[in-house]
């Protein structure tokens, strides 16, 4: 077990994440908000690996990692134990999109249905980064990954992102939200709400990955912003299954987001793929319609 | 207090008396009566525990991980397919040194699907780092739960344990069982108070990853803990014996073995049949004895080599098979007797619930006398 040393945050400096890692930033923001009276359950993935090479740990709150797929079940057990011992710590799950959308799906469904009191944070970097950028159920349409590579007869990932927030809202989760590392104040507010709402709550945090998406480390925040400004990522809140708050934007064309990342490069080079770009634009348009995203500018 | 009760209910009652704070399990035949009984205890406030009704076995044991790491005594039960689904979690529990106790109502593994008894399930997890106890009858199945918690939670051990008892043959059979009182259990089994747990007052990290510079030592430590468990089991078994007149200090137990020429080595409920067969063989003038293995992990190699040192031949019964090799027990018994000239023969039998009768034991003794072994026993020739 790890020793304590001088700390600079509850998620400490000195971890091994790539420079510019969105997930590491999410870990810092979330633990800052949650505070010391928190127990973190982490799934296998980048965050677990970059934070805990034995005998070092970046976590200044109690932390447990078990497997890739079972964080919600482990958290269920922690919650049961705390209840029996009359303890009051809050339980926070930190899990990647692969752990959440794919391999942990049964476990999450079970835990949300049972109604345990925990906050589930999915840091969504839109692929299995730890194992080398393979696609997940959260990978966006047409993104090139190592298991959905763009090629002479493929434009990359063939399916749009799974709607995980809707799935968990359908389980009766009292609070479901999406957030982005580009908007820390909003993210903090949502994490706080989730933690203070009894029952299983879910916050899906957009966490760009410079290594997996193919951009320079100093662009993480700018790219996360662009995802929202193009309508490809929507920041919203759902209370008891009803959308109560949406971040509205003056929408930019999706190309402004896509051209910043190598995972979409094949849509522009060697030649522009107009039909594919139109399909992605349509995804953003549908988001805009569903969530009434667009800020209507007054005509001069 | 002596009661005539079903094996599963006796086990559930023993678990209740151990006061687990968190129970998490998923129903599967022939384990179901245990988890139903525990749910009833909780519903009637006879057991002050959180009972987590998970959606599958992987989650059942995963929830136990969370609860145990948070400092609560924790219990689960399963068998066969359920245990197979827990494969990954089992290794994880042991690696994190969490003293979770899990009852295994031993059952065959599919395909073909079979709900009937053999020991393939728990034996297949012999490398996972769990202690493995095997019960001969329901009294032993019951008592071994008290022993298992005491040993698993001992700071010198800190490993999880399976308490295995044969599905249906024991789990669904009514036998007289002497149940010790709550007061007595509390005397024998102290409160669970782990040195390390998930606690905001003293934050530590559980389940970190280890580079090649560290991993080997983690495994070594676990193996050392298994070896230390031998002594801890002996001590706990003796203490139990002194308090309640049933001594479980021995990891292996001989029956009419002292002057035996042929020794049968077996685990679990079949030992009862073997003992009856031995009594009859003895009456017919044959010097046959039994060596019952109660603890399969840690494997009692020295004890076995010692106990079998004077016999002329050994017949090992395996209700499991490592396909393409041999039964797990015979492989390990032979290893324990390495260097000895005593012939050790293995017999794979009883798989998928095939009945093992006294006449089968007699037949195996005479095969062993002829030097015939290392084979399946009891095959229906017309089917192959
Ligand atoms: C049962 C199992 N299957 C596969 C793996 C290999 N594996 C480890 S992490 C990982 C991907 C993690 O993806 P995600 O949850 O999105 O986290 P990220 O690495 O992207 O942060 C995979 C496939 C594993 N550890 N366990
Ligand atoms: S690969 Fe991506 S998610 Fe993983 S540490 Fe690097 S930037 Fe972060
Ligand atoms: Mg990911």
Structure description:
In chain A, the strands form two sheets. In chain A, strands 2-1-3-4-8-7-9-10 form an eight-stranded mixed beta sheet, sandwiched between helices. Chain A has a two-stranded antiparallel ribbon with strand order 5-6. In chain A, a hairpin with a 2-residue loop joins strand 5 (150-151) and strand 6. Chain A has eleven helices and ten strands. In chain A, helix 1 packs across helix 7 and helix 3 (71-85) packs parallel to helix 5 (105-114). Chain A is an alpha/beta fold. The model of chain A has no long low-confidence stretch (mean pLDDT 96). Chain A has a single domain, classed as Rossmann fold, CATH 3.40.50.970. Chain B has two domains: 2-244, Rossmann fold, CATH 3.40.50.970; 252-383, Rossmann fold (3-Layer(aba) Sandwich). In chain B, 39% of the residues lie in helices and 18% in strands. In chain B, strands 3-2-4-5-7-6-13 form a seven-stranded mixed beta sheet, with helices on both faces. In chain B, strands 10-12-11-14-15-16 form a six-stranded mixed beta sheet, sandwiched between helices. A two-stranded antiparallel sheet of chain B has the order 1-8. In chain B, strand 11 (262-266), helix 10 and strand 12 form a beta-alpha-beta unit. In chain B, helix 3 runs parallel beside helix 5, helix 7 (138-153) crosses helix 9 and helix 11 (301-307) crosses helix 12. Chain B is globular. The mean pLDDT of chain B is 98. The chains are: A alpha/beta (300), B alpha/beta (384). At the A-B interface, strand 1, strand 2, helix 3 and helix 5 of A face helix 3, helix 5 and strand 9 of B. Strand 2 of chain A pairs parallel with strand 9 (205-206) of chain B. The structure holds thiamine diphosphate, iron/sulfur cluster and magnesium ion.
């Amino acid at each position: 077990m790890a020793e304590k040393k001088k700390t600079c945050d509850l998620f400490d400096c000195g971890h091994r994440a790539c420079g510019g890692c969105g997930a590491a930033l999410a870990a810092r923001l979330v633990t800052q908000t949650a505070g010391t009276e928190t127990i973190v359950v982490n799934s296998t993935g980048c965050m677990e690996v970059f934070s805990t090479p034995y005998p070092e740990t970046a976590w200044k709150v109690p932390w447990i990692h078990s497997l890739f797929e079972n964080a919600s079940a482990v958290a269920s057990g922690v919650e049961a134990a705390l209840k029996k011992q009359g303890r009051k710590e809050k339980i926070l799950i930190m899990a990647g999109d692969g752990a959440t959308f794919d391999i942990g799906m049964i476990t999450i469904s079970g835990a949300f249905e049972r109604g345990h009191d925990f906050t589930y944070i999915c840091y969504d970097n839109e692929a299995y980064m730890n194992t080398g950028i393979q696609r997940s159920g959260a990978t966006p349409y047409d993104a090139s990954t190592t298991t959905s590579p763009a090629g002479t007869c493929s434009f990359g990932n063939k399916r749009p992102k799974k709607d995980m927030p809707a799935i968990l809202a359908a389980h009766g989760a009292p609070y479901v939200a999406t957030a982005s590392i580009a908007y820390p104040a909003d993210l903090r507010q949502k994490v706080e709400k989730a933690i203070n709402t009894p029952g299983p709550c879910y916050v899906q945090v957009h966490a760009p990955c410079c290594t997996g998406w193919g951009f320079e480390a100093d662009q993480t925040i700018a790219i996360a912003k662009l995802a929202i400004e193009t309508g490809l990522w929507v920041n919203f809140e759902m209370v008891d299954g009803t959308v109560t708050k949406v971040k509205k934007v003056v929408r930019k064309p999706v190309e402004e987001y896509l051209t910043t990342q190598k995972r979409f490069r094949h849509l522009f080079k060697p030649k522009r793929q107009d039909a594919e770009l139109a399909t992605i634009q349509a995804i953003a348009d549908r988001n805009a319609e569903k969530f009434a995203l667009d800020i209507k500018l007054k005509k001069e | 207090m002596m009661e005539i009760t079903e094996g599963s209910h006796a086990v559930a009652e023993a678990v209740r008396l151990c006061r687990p704070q968190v129970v998490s399990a998923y129903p599967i035949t022939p384990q179901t009566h245990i988890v139903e009984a525990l749910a009833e205890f909780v519903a009637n406030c006879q057991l002050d525990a959180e009972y987590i009704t998970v959606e599958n076995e992987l989650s059942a044991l995963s929830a136990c991980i969370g609860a145990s790491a948070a400092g609560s005594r924790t219990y689960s039960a399963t068998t066969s397919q359920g245990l197979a689904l827990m494969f990954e979690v089992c290794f994880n529990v042991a690696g994190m040194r969490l003293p979770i106790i899990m009852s295994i109502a031993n059952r065959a593994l599919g395909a073909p699907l079979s709900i009937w008894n053999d020991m393939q399930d728990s034996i297949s997890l012999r490398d996972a780092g769990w202690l493995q106890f095997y019960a001969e009858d329901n009294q032993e199945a019951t008592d071994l739960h008290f022993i298992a918690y005491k040993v698993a939670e001992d700071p010198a051990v800190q490993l999880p344990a399976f308490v295995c008892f044969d599905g249906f043959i024991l789990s669904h059979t009514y036998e007289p069982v002497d149940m010790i009182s709550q007061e007595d259990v509390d005397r024998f089994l102290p409160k669970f108070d782990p040195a390390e747990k998930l606690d905001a007052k003293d934050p530590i990290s559980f389940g970190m990853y280890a580079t090649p510079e560290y991993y080997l030592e983690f495994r070594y430590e676990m193996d050392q803990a298994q070896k230390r468990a031998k002594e801890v089991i002996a001590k706990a078994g003796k203490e139990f014996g002194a308090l309640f007149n049933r001594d479980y200090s021995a990891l292996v137990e001989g029956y009419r073995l002292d002057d035996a020429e042929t020794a049968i080595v077996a685990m679990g409920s079949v030992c009862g049949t073997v003992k009856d067969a031995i009594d009859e063989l003895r009456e017919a003038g044959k010097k046959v004895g039994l060596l019952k293995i109660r603890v399969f992990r840690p494997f009692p190699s020295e004890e076995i080599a010692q106990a079998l040192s004077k016999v002329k031949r050994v017949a090992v019964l395996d209700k499991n098979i490592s396909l393409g090799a041999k039964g797990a027990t015979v492989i390990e018994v032979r290893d324990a007797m390495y260097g000895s000239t005593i012939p050790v023969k293995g017999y794979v039998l009883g798989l998928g619930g095939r009945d093992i009768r006294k006449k089968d034991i007699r037949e195996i003794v005479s095969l062993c006398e002829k030097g015939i072994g290392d084979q399946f026993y009891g095959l229906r020739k017309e089917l192959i």
